Amino acid sequence: MAWIYLLIAGALEIVWAYAMKQSDSFTRFWPTVIMVVAMAGSFGLLALSMRTLPLGTAYTIWTGIGAVGAFLVGIMVLGEQASAARLGAAVLIVSGLVMMKLSSAH
């Protein structure tokens, strides 16, 4: 169950990062509300996952999901640049996440 909490927490991290961008420095009400709710949910589920998972594993996976997810949203939704170097960096992050999961005893 801890891994499910962690995956949902990572997805919510992507939501709050995107909502923060859409809030226009917290000047738009609904994106700001979505950001706060998603952030609270993300942190709460991360905390629940840490009841079972080691800190290093849980936090690394959580931030990795958020980083790669926000990167992909930036490219697919916001039209940000998808250079070879940026894509390579994302592949390295995902590789690190896979290695972290494979090396976890849980």
Automatic annotation (TrEMBL):
The keyword Kinase does not apply. The lineage of its organism: Bacteria, Pseudomonadati, Pseudomonadota, Alphaproteobacteria, Hyphomicrobiales. InterPro entries: EmrE-like (IPR037185), Small_drug/metabolite_transptr (IPR000390), Small_multidrug_res (IPR045324). Pfam families: Multi_Drug_Res (PF00893). Its main location: membrane. One of its GO terms (molecular function) is transmembrane transporter activity. Belongs to the drug/metabolite transporter (DMT) superfamily. Small multidrug resistance (SMR) (TC 2.A.7.1) family. Gdx/SugE subfamily. GO terms for biological process: xenobiotic detoxification by transmembrane export across the plasma membrane. It is a multi-pass membrane protein. Signal peptide: none annotated. Keywords: Cell membrane, Membrane, Transmembrane, Transmembrane helix, Transport. This is Guanidinium exporter. The chain crosses the membrane at residues 27-47, 59-78, 84-102. It is found in: Cell membrane.
